[in-house]
Hints:
- This protein starts with a strand and ends in a 9-residue tail after the last helix.
- The strands form 4 sheets. Strands 1, 8, 9, 10, 11, 12, 14, 15, 16, 17, 20, 21, 22 and 23 form a 14-stranded mixed beta sheet that branches.
- By secondary structure, it is α/β, with parallel strands linked by helices.
- Helix content is 26%, strand content 17%.
- It folds into 3 domains: 4-134, Roll (Mannose-Binding Protein A, Chain A); 164-188 and 197-419, Alpha/Beta hydrolase fold, catalytic domain (Rossmann fold, 3-Layer(aba) Sandwich), CATH 3.40.50.1820; 442-670, 3-Layer(aba) Sandwich (Rossmann fold), CATH 3.40.50.
Amino acid sequence: MDFIALTLGCLAAIPVAASYTIPSSGGSDITLLYYNDVDVHTASEHQSVLLLSPLLNSEADSACASLGETLLPVNESFYHTELIPSLQYQVYQGHYSEAQLYWIQSTGSSCEAVNSLGFVVPAPCALQLPALCSQSAQFGASPEPANSLTVQANDLTITGYRDQLSFRFEGIPYADPPERFTYPTTWTGSKTLNATAFGSECVQSGVPNGSEDCLFLNVWTPYIPEDPSTAPSSKLKPVFFWIHGGAFTGGTGSDPTFAGGNMASRGDVVVVTINYRLSTLGFLALEDGKTNGNFGLADQVAALDWVREYITAFGGDPDRITIFGQSAGAGSVRALLGSPQAIGKFAAAIPMSNLAGSDYATTYSLYYTIPEEVTAVVEPILEEIGCNATDAAGALACLKAYDAYELVTLTNVARFVVVDGTYVTRTGLIVNGTASPVANVHTMMGYMRDDGAAFIGYPNTTNLTAALIAQSLPTAVVDNSLFPVQTGPNATYDVFNVTAGVATDVEFRCLDQATAYYAVQHNLFQSVWFYEFNRSYQSAGWSPNYPVCNAPVSDEFPYGDPSQEYFKCHSGELYYVFGSLPSTSPYRDELDLPFMQRTIDVWTSFARTYNPNPDPAYLAVRWYNNTLAAIYAEEPWEPVTSANLNTAPLRTLQWTSFMGPFAEQAQCDYLDYSLDYYV
Length: 679
């Protein structure tokens, strides 16, 4: 029988470890309950608890002890505040009734329980009641025997740990260590896995300690079923499957920006993040009939296959997987939407800031053929490293022998999705209804208002024509009323305002809007929701053209005033989506925290219901009052439909969000990226 248990043995911080002694936890599901307001600065002041399935009182006491915990001690302040929404949420989900009692630690000689309103009452010890255990692992806890947990996932025994927010499983190998320039194969290593430390990052520029043995994934979950084979679907959680960005040359699923604990606990979802091979190691293609490229994309599909096979053991529903990614991750999502190898393996998709159009953006949505990639980058790579480019077999052997880190730090690298005939069969996602395959799933897509500001340089001239030429942008916009030059105190900044707007149009906005337009016109997806972010919090580690992506500083707002104008740049939504603003980053105004709460609520609502409008009853029962007040203060987010395509299909995401027409469509039309671009 599948089971869960506390691991008492010492854990080696390696992905694969020896077997452990795994005593029984009492034969129970475990749910981690936590009232999560996403405030990193006060998280240590809050308490989480563990909820076990119905047991006799004596069994409940033993089950808590097997987890290294006790039945939950009475704390009336906690019971009448943070415990109530956690228990009321059980009622909302239909798991228990309003009258349900839960075992707690007795204060006297008789057995005691708490009801869903936080009141302590005596209860006969012979009753079978769900039990509340203490949860002593703190915010940001490291793995140790006392907070470790082992799941049996089909043929795998996987040990992770818990912190205040969720159960965590890090560095799970989802495929065998890959042979260079070959496609991933199913994991055949040890069936006993230590998932208490992140696996190696994939080899990439700037990470000299990366490894080619890097095909790992990570799981954050609020729920572990006792027996995955019998867990009812009503208890399983929707799964978020995150594909990181980084130009197909960098990034990792272990980036703390993508930590899934806040999403898991506040949104009641399972979060999976993955590594996949990058740069030339992930995307090299040769004209030899077998080295067909897209190895990194194949890794993503292999990880998706792993999730579908094993995620039930982590409380996830394999039939409710939402793939989502940003930048190159969005490009990956777009490719998977048209991939015969991925279609049918996910139920929804969220491409965030997908690149499409001209210049740098072109190849993210318009794929090279293999001969085109060979000409564009492979031949220059071979020349740069001194390999014989005329003999495919010799070139491959030379590339396989070359140092991995040096290969990805060359002047030329292969970072392109190509038409390989298996994972990608067409030069782009066909959205005009003339061909298949296209995944018929729910979609939510959009961009940052000023995404393009990160992909051009800041001008060193006040001459708009010169600035446009320097960034390979169309000079026809000069003296055009659709692209006015502001007359502020900084003439260079005014020029940048135009070049950034044009770059956003031709690299993000226009063709993403055209994608949504055609998808609706041809009923390609089950639903389409489209957004533009008009609030951002730029990462200090990546703030292009600093400080234009940061809210302006004043005496009243020393960390920046988001109510003022500033560029809402690429990646500026990630802290909000994951609720991962680090403790070193202050809240700039009174809305940063509630906007982050609300963004998580919107994204996880989509994962749960395929509708980004959170259910008001859900918000009320969980005491998510900031989001509840906000949605009552504004019109609902409407999906893109044939009825509103030409009126108000776009959701502008800011504190008071609103519906409106596709943004800058007249500019898109002028730039030859009209809504009917994909005709």
